[in-house]
Each structure stands twice: as structure tokens, then as C-alpha cells.
Amino acid sequence: MISVIFCTHEKNFTRLYQVFRRKTNFKPCKRTKPFTSIKESVMKVLSIDIGGTKVATAIIDNNLQITKRLQFKSRNDHTPEIFEQFFTDILSNYDSNEYDAITIGTAGIINKGIYTCLTKTSIGQLDGLPFIDLFKRISGNKPVIALNDAQAATYAEYCTAQLANMCFVTVSTGVGGGFILNDDILIGEDGRAGHIGHMLIKTPSPVAQIWGNYAKVEDLASGRAIAAATKDWERPLTTAEVFNGQAEGDPRCDAIVKAAAEAITQMIANIVISYDIQEFFLGGSVAYHTNFIDQVQEMLNSMPEQYHAKLHRAAHGQDSVLVGAAQYYFNRGLKGYNS
């Protein structure tokens, strides 16, 4: 057996490792946990996932051990005052000595500590909210970092997959994503990078008759959109019921799911040809429904070869945002984005 030891600064390790693997036939030992920074002592964060359906919180240490995970129903009627009280109440479930910092993945955009939401009904009317300062204040001035929720999930998948170039796609209440390019997460000038669900596509699908010939991917493929496509039926269905209907051979349900899969396929094909990314990780409640990823992969494979990519089921499931936000802090500290 030959042992190989890399001596390099932490931020250069992943890039060096990728080059080494490409130029050799090296097969690494299987990891028992995701890559994370090596710390001399245990650090803990209170990680928060703020989504359109739920808010999840947990204590996560730098060995990625998750404890005291709690979950709350989201509100979509937030004003700044309601939002502050809501999270003051949530933080009261934790003692301040249980964590060293707060890490957040949230729906919407955090730019220079200020919140902006592209989907106004997501978590309330909070545009312009001094997001970072608010969480510092209600936590007793703990260090705080915040990312878009899909960017946080992207970072979690990256730390596990260790691919220099990859894309994470979440298909859930909404559609979002994030990019890893040359071993770094793409944030963008204003923090908007990865809002791929707002990509416009033209579709001939029957679902498009509801929203017009041009639609955002999110308006065709999100869980909210799939259920909304049945709103004029005698009995409107939930997203899960639409997928069950497809499995049982209902042609109307089949058309809705295929329209959603086609929208995701077009979106991925556009990303492949734009960024030369060939590895995609799909997560979210819609993506996890039986055969959805397989349907997208089949549609993608039917396109010209230059649009092909390999699709994977995301590794971290419902905790991807919590874990990714925590890992971002452990690996980058307060030099991270939005701190």
C-alpha cells in the first residue's frame, strides 16, 4: 500500500486533491463523514434553515454531529416586528452557552447583511430588513453568517462530493440551486447567483396554458405549481396526490409531472451548456418523489450529447441547509459571505 500525504494550506487542498485524482489512478478510502475543517477543539453553532414551509434549527458541531433539532411551521405574514419576535421565541429554546455562532440558510437573498426576497409570498414582507444585525441583537451579539438556503445546501453537497465543478438543484416549495465552480461557491455580485428557478423557458406543455407560453421554471416544476395545476379540477390535488395519480396511470397527472420534469430538464440543459457542469445533485420534496429524477435524466439523455449530465440524489436530505450553513462557517469563519 502506498500512502500519499498532502502538505498544503487548507483552502488549496481540495483543488490539489482533484488534480491528483485526475492525473493518477488513485482510489481514495471511503469517507465516513463529510469533509470539514480540522479544529483543535469542538465548536458548535446554532444552524437555522428558514424556508417557505418550515423553519428548522439544530446545534451542529464541527464534527457535524447534530443535536437538539427542532422544527417550526413557517409564517408568510412576517413584518420586521413579527419576524424578530418569531425568532426571539425560537432562540429561547436554546441556552446561549450551547453555541458559539449562528449560521443561517434562508429563502431569499442576503446582500451586505440586508434581506431581499424574489418571491414576495415566501416568508413575508421583509425587503430591506437588516438581517444579520437582527440575529446578532436577539442572540446577545453572537457571530452570525447567512447564505441563501440553496447556496447553503450546495455547500453541504460540495463538502461531501468534493467535485471541483457541480450544481445543486432543489425542487420543493420553490425551485432553486447553487453552483460550485473551480472549487468555490458562486455567490454573485448581489448574492443572487443560483436562483435558477427564475430562469425563463418556453414550453408547449398543457400546464403552460395556465401561466402562458413563457414561464419561470418555478412556475412549472415547484410543488406549489404542481398542486396549482389541479385548482380547476372537481377536487384539487396535493403535490403528492398528483405523483400518486401518475403512478396509477392518470393521464392528467402524468401530463403535469412530465411538464414539471421537462422544465427541470430544460433548465439543467441550459446550465450544462453555459457552465460546462456535468454533475448535478437534486434534492427537495418534489425531486425525492418516486422516479422524478429518473424522468429528468431520461429526458436529458434524449437531448444532443453536449447537453448531457449525470444526475444524483442529494446526500443530505432535509438537513442539507442546516449542515451546509454550518460547514461554511467552520471552513471559512467570519471571512465568509454576509457576516
From TrEMBL:
Q: Which UniProt keywords apply?
A: Carbohydrate metabolism
- The species is Psittacicella melopsittaci
* One BP annotation, GO: N-acetylneuraminate catabolic process
Query: What InterPro entries does the database record attribute to this sequence?
Result: ATPase_NBD, ROK, ROK_cs
Per the UniProt record, one Pfam family is ROK
Under Gene Ontology molecular function, one entry of this record is: N-acylmannosamine kinase activity
User: Which SUPFAM superfamilies does the UniProt record give?
Assistant: Actin-like ATPase domain (SSF53067)
Protein's UniProt name: ROK family protein
